[in-house]
Structures are given as structure tokens and as C-alpha cells.
Amino acid sequence: MINTRLTGRWFIQAAGIGLIVLMNMLHGDDMDRYAIRSRHIHTVTRGKVDGVVLIQDGIIQAVGTNINIPAGYEIIEADTLRVYPGFIDAHGSIGLKAPESAGAAGNGSLRIPLSDAHIRAAGLLDRDHQSIDKMRNQGVTTVLTIPPRGVFIGQSTLINLAGADARSMVVKSPVGLHMGYDRQPGQYPNTLMAVIAFQRQTFLDALHHQRLLRQYEQQKRGIRRPTVNEPLEAIFPVFDGIRPLIIQVNTENEIKRALKLAAEFNLQPILSGVNEGWRVVDRLREANLPAIMTVNYPKPEEVTGYAWLLETDPLPGGAGKTAETRKDTIRKEQKPWVDVYANGAALNEAGVLHGFGSWGTSGSDFLKNIRKAVEHGLPANAALESMTIRPAKLLGVAEQLGSIEAGKIANLVIMNREWHDKEALPRFVFIDGEKFRIEESKKTPAKAEVDVTGRWDCKAVTPDGEQPFTLILSQKEETLTGRMVSPMGEVEIRNGVVSGNTLDFTVSLPLGPQPVDLYFTGTVTGNTVKGTLDMGPMGQAGWSGEKPGMEFNIRNESTAIFGGIHE
After folding, report:
1. What percentage of the chain reaches a pLDDT higher than 70?
2. 530 CB contacts (<8 Å, ≥6 apart)?
3. SS3 state of residue 90
4. Torsion sign across C-alpha atoms 37, 42, 44, 48
């Protein structure tokens, strides 16, 4: 038997919903219309405006001082807030699934880089990747994304960090062909000179293949058709000036070699990374090639020149000191850090700074590290341009992004202070006109309930199998320090926190020419720990560890009687 009372009520509700849908179809969805009212609208290209920004259907409809707000717009009162164009990460590995391992050697070593020249990052997009929220919450709305490793890495894609699906995130694809200086331990090419030889031979092969194809196109009869070679053919647009070559370089030697290779093949590449650009700034000024500076700063002892100091004893009291002591001495000196952080100022003064790239940093480090460049001489206005209009021009999207102007994509960030203030935080982010309210995080670690001080024998379960490593940890209340030892070397842990019975920390491993940040979180139970390893663009993995012997401490005094052994 049908309940006519319920059926009638459902019909009325359905009719009401249908009416709302119909009205939205006729008049547009009101929630897609916004009016931002502020005294501090930083347009970038047209100065600062005291007025209104109107947004509808994902597009900036108007910006100015005397704008009437039509009915049906949601008004955001931002009188004391600052409005900026959405920030652009001009080189990262955000929102990507781990590439297929089809080109990998059977022993789990790094993938053959040449096979990736024709791979487009657009095919690896993951709309729900955990890295997207981290960057968006810092005010980054757009990223040039590409897998982080390889020699001929593939073709990058420019994405907005929101969308109904992966395809709707794409702003431009492909953008450029990326080439790097990744070495492959245990197989060719495993040195810088071998990588350079590999790159040069690949260019020569591509030019030869291009000549054969063009000859065949002009006269097919009597000529054997060339075999299709997608990796080599992906390089043709670079030779023809249709698509830029983006060379990922960091050290002084890599920069010099890249400039020499570009000159030999008459190329005008974009240099990305350039951590040691300040060491060859005259060469960069002379070449006048655009640079995207990574904000993943090296430690001073990793920089050419300072690294050499670790092998000698010119430091004060250096004789007889251990390598670790010499590292500590270098880190405490002011000049090495000034040189590292002043790289942006040097590149800008040379006229080659066109953007910033995250390159393995966490979302929370992107703006923080750009602020360090400002603190060390980079003008704040130049830094803002290098997060907005400069990379938009460089990547060929200045008609869509990079400034607050009518007709452009509604990518905006609204902050509580001037962006370069250490206390500045985003309050709203707009991407393609979609509003995201950013809640201020005030997470305070809970009191530590365990003491993880000591050695832990651990393993990570990755697609290449189990990877062993050792943690040597030291804990003081909720602060965790120490180091991680693995077949890839020994590195310090950073941002270590113990909260309750969980621990979190970060390490940077040399997974390529540029270190990549890995984020560990784990739960401690007795003398074991188990958790998740966030490897950024390489996905996630599980990890676990065991502390030899029952050496763990229970900090809660009420349970200490059960035999916690204090070290």
C-alpha cells in the first residue's frame, strides 16, 4: 500500500528542488558570484586598488574603485585583508601519481630516463593527491607539475589546484620538455659526465631522426620509412622553437654544462633550480636565460666550495675535528647561509629571475622560504612578481593568470597581512572562481606519553620492495631530533614532534640531483612503531620499526610501574 501522505510530501519537495535548479539554469548559481571588497587589492600589473573585485563563472568580471555590486553576489568584506593574484609554483611535482615502472630495470633501480621524454604529466594527474591541499592552503593556486626524477623526464603540465576532475584542473599542456641531471647508481649514466654524454648523444640522435622523417615526407618512393621513435620525436618541438626545454640544474657545474649544451645545439632553455646561481651569476647574466629558482635551499656544506671545506682543515681550530664538527662550524657561520638565501637577490639583480619552484619542499615551506629570500635582499615587489606575473609570462599564460584584471581566471588569495610578513596567513583562496576558506591551524602537540630515545631498526615497504633504514632518535619532552641512516647515506631528521604516542618527522633524501622531502608519521606501541611515509610525487608507503630490547619509556607516571626501562 502506498503512503499518499509521504508521496505527496516527496512530490512537493522534489518540485521545489526542480524549481531551484531551473532558476539557477536561467539566472546562474548565486554561489558562483562573489564581490571582494578591500582597501588592499594588489593587482601586480596596475598597482594597488581600494575597491572591489567581482567574480562570476570562474572569471574576474571587474576590478576597480567605483564598482556597483549587483544583486545576488556574495560579498566578502576584506577591508583589513590583502588580496593578491593566486601564487604560481613554477616547478613542482604536485598532484601526480607515481609514474609507471615500465622503464625500470629489473633490479628496482631508477627508471631509464630517455623513455620518459614523450610522457605527459597530464596523464599522471591525481585530483585527490594529498600534496594539493598542502600547497593550496599556502595560497598557491597554480603549479607547473612534472615528475621529479630522470634525465629526459617528460612534458610538464600547468594545473590549477582544484577542479571537478583531473582534466578540468589543466590550464595548459604540455608546457615544456624537462631534462635533468639524475645519476643512476650502479648503471649508466652514473656520473655527471656520463649524463652529459647521454644528453648530447640523444640530441644528436633526435636531429638525425628528424632529418630522416623530413626527407621521407618530401619523397616517400624509393626510401625506407623511418621507424617510429616517440621519445626522440618528443624533442622535435624543442628544436623547432615550439616548446621550451626546461633544464633542471642546481650546482655550479650543472649550470655551466647546461649553458654549454644549449649553445652547442642553439637552444634557448629555461633553467630551473639554479641553487648555486649566485656562484655563476655573471655567466647567467651574459646568457640572459630565464631562471626558475628552487626554494628548496641546500645546507651550506652541500654547496660547491663549502663542501670542499669539509675535506680540509681551514676552519678555526679545524685540525683534528670530525666531519660532523666541521659541518656544525660551517652551519653556524653567517656567510654560508647568506650566500644560500641571497641567491634570489643575485638572480633578480642579473635580470634572470622569472619564478620560484617548490622542488620537494612541503606546502608550508614554499612561502616561508621565499620570505627568506626577501630577508636577504630580494625586493618584496620582485618576489611577488616572481610568484605571479613573471611565471605567467614565462609559461605563456599571462592572458589568463598572474594578475588581478578583468577577463582573467579568478585565481586569488586573500591574506591577513602583507604576504611577506612572517605572520601572514591565507584566509580565502579562489581557484577558477571556487572559494576555499582556509582555517587557521593552531594545533598544539599533546603531552608526550612515550620516550622514543634510542636506536630503531626500521623498514619501508615501497613498490621496489622493502627498504631498510635505522633511526637514531633523541627526545626532549615533545621535541624529537636525531638522524636516519640508510643505504643512501646519513641525514638529519627535521620538524620532529612526539604527541601522545605518535611521532612525526621529516627527512631529505638525495633521490636525484635535488633532495626530496619525505614525511614520516607513526604510532608507538611498546617497542614497535608503525605508520605512513609520504613520499610526495612518488606516493605513499608503509613503514615500521622495532627498538631492540624493551627500552621504551612510558611517560605517564601512573603506568610507569609496568616496567618502563629508562635509558
Report:
1. 79
2. 522, 523, 542, 543, 544, 545
3. strand
4. positive
Among the listed residues 280, 302, 272, the one whose alpha carbon sits nearest the alpha carbon of residue 145: 272
Round to whole Å and give the CA distance between 370 and 314: 32
Residue pair 555/451 in contact by the 8 Å Cβ criterion: yes
Tens digits of residue pLDDT in 166-179: 999 999 999 999 99
Kindly report which listed range (202-216, 307-321, 341-355, 440-454) carries the lowest average pLDDT score: 307-321
Say if residue 559's pLDDT is above 50. no
SS3 per residue for 47-60: CEEEEEEEEECCEE
Give the integer Cα–Cα distance in Å for 333 and 336. Answer: 6
pLDDT score of 338 more than 90: no
Backbone angles phi, psi at 114, to 5 degrees: -60, -35
156-169 pLDDT per residue, tens: 999 999 999 999 99
Q: For 293-317, what is the mean pLDDT? A: 67
**With respect to CATH, is domain 88-401 assigned 3.30.70.1230?**
no
Class of domain 1-86+402-442: mainly beta
Report the mean per-residue pLDDT for the chain. 83
CA distance 207 to 215: 12
Nearest 10 degrees: CA dihedral of 18, 23, 28, 32? -60
Report the first-to-last Cα separation within the chain, whole angstroms: 74
Q: Which neighbouring-strand residues pair with 525?
A: 528
Classify 450-562 by CATH class. Answer: mainly beta
CA–CA–CA angle 440, 441, 444 (5° rounding): 145
Which strand ranges, in their side-by-side order, compose the sheet holding 87-92? 87-92, 140-145, 157-160, 170-172
Cell numbers linked to 462: 615501497
Overall average pLDDT of the 15-27 stretch: 40
Sign of CA dihedral 505, 509, 511, 514: positive
Distance CA 428, CA 415 (A): 7
Q: Which residue, chain included where needed, has cell 626546461?
A: 246
Grid cell locating 216: 621521407
More confident residue, 128 or 318: 128
Q: Is the pLDDT of residue 154 over 60?
A: yes
Domain definitions of the chain by residue range: 1-86+402-442, 88-401, 450-562
